[in-house]
């Protein structure tokens, strides 16, 4: 298999909402990002063991080819930034009256999901 090849896992419609985007794209990215992060944040290991886990995870990640890219295309004011970040840039959509989690973009959802995985594992690597 050509390591320089790219594959489209999902192409979403202009009618898809933030939930559809996260379901098809974000949750996979969060899962793939969580393991090396959880290993690095694992509190019971010594610094040497944490370093070893981080190296192992980095090697596994490099060998798995599970790198992700999100491309958001559109004309001016079409919602590219909203899709990626949600709400007003730099403002949590939960803080804006009348908006809820459904308006959150990909990045805040990824961060929430990664740390939720950490908490579900009791602060330990998966």
Percent strand equals under 5%
Spans where pLDDT lies below 50 across 5 or more residues: 49-55, 59-63
Structural class by helix and strand composition: mainly alpha
Described by its quaternary structure, the protein is single chain
**Roughly how much helix do the residues carry, as a percent range?**
40-55%
Question: Could you please describe the fold and organization of this structure?
Answer:
- This is Kinesin motor domain-containing protein.
- InterPro entries: Kinesin_motor_dom_sf (IPR036961), P-loop_NTPase (IPR027417).
- With about 130 residues, the protein is mainly α.
- It has a domain at about 25-65 and about 75-120.
- About 50% of the residues lie in helices and about 0% in strands.
- It contains 4 helices and no strands.
- The protein has helices at about 20-40, 45-65, 80-85, 105-120.
- Helix 1 packs across helix 2.
- The longest helix is centred in the first third of the chain and has 24 residues, at about 20-40.
- The two termini are about 30 Å apart.
- Residues about 50-55 and about 60-65 have low confidence and may be disordered.
